[in-house]
Amino acid sequence: MRIDGTAYRTIWPEADGILTVIDQTRLPHEFALVRLTNLNEAAHAIRAMLVRGAPLIGATAAYGVALALRADASDAGLERACITLLETRPTAVNLRWALERMRARLAPLPESQRLAAADAEAASIADEDVAINRAIGGHGAALIHAAAGRKAPGGPVNVLTHCNAGWLATVDWGTALAPVYAAFEQGIPLHVWVDETRPRNQGASLTAWELKQHGVPHTVIADNVGGHLMQHGKVDLCIVGTDRTTAAGDVCNKIGTYLKALAAHDNGVPFYVGLPSPTIDWTIADGLRNIPIEERDGREVSELTGRTADGRIETVRVTPDGSPVANYAFDVTPARLVTGLITERGVCAATREGLLGLFPERA
Ligand code: MRU
């Protein structure tokens, strides 16, 4: 993706032992790069959400292992790195996937070979993420193209998305937004409704910022608006991302996704999920029972941060002092509410059979 004309990924090794990421906690008001140099800094970046989004969390963890091995490439060092990183965030399964892949590649090697192999494996994970998302973009763009064909000529296809499952949530392209970018490049007229996505406002702060950078027409809406828009025919399709999708097609994503799926179902609006294969948890089927839902600091609900008219970044409280708050970060949309899963191998039904049709090696 281009920022002010310069091509960027969201994460890249800048020099030996220096990993550079974009500090997403400062967007949209400031584009700031942060350099990570050791295990604790990588873990902090994930935990404090300088980097976030399931695929980017996985890539950061992989690079984080490579940073950790610079200090200690022993079996104990590798194990400590994997445990420390795995504990940072519980829901996105890409974290576990990336760490298992790093461990499987590195553990059999002698210590002297581990560092070079870790750098190479982390780079492969990042490159594969880009290729996966580009393919998701191609398959998803065909759905947007089909939606355009069902509309009166000239009118834009209205896509509703939740949270940020765009370029910033991955190494490049995004998952839910990859089809939007691909369709936009193909010249299909489109417009994106961007859910603000309280409490952390990933939609208002991040999705709006990256769509604006790319020149894609969009409108930010409060979280509760989507149902109203769907009732009035103003949404042609929804595309969201996912942090973990079960082998039976239950989709875990940012809190509030389920309510959008319910509204879409009630109004006959197709509801698609951009799903890179590392986000499939083949070990579970029942998303409601088996996916750990992250609960975060209540201050994300009771406080809001933004820029004042004179340019200062300020945090203000919006709840009464002493009112208890709860902060569930994700929810599960049952497979029956999902129209289709857009993977790098094509679009399939949100069912075990649908997924196995595209990934037969998992049977
Ligand atoms: O808490 P976050 O910002 O990490 O949550 C991100 C999401 O829920 C995304 O929709 C999901 O990770 C898919 S990213 C391509």
From TrEMBL:
Substrate binds at residues 52-54, 89, 202, 253-254. The active site is at residue 243. The record marks 163 as: Transition state stabilizer. GO terms for molecular function: S-methyl-5-thioribose-1-phosphate isomerase activity. It is an enzyme of class 5 (isomerase). One of its GO terms (biological process) is L-methionine salvage from methylthioadenosine. Belongs to the EIF-2B alpha/beta/delta subunits family. MtnA subfamily. This is Methylthioribose-1-phosphate isomerase.
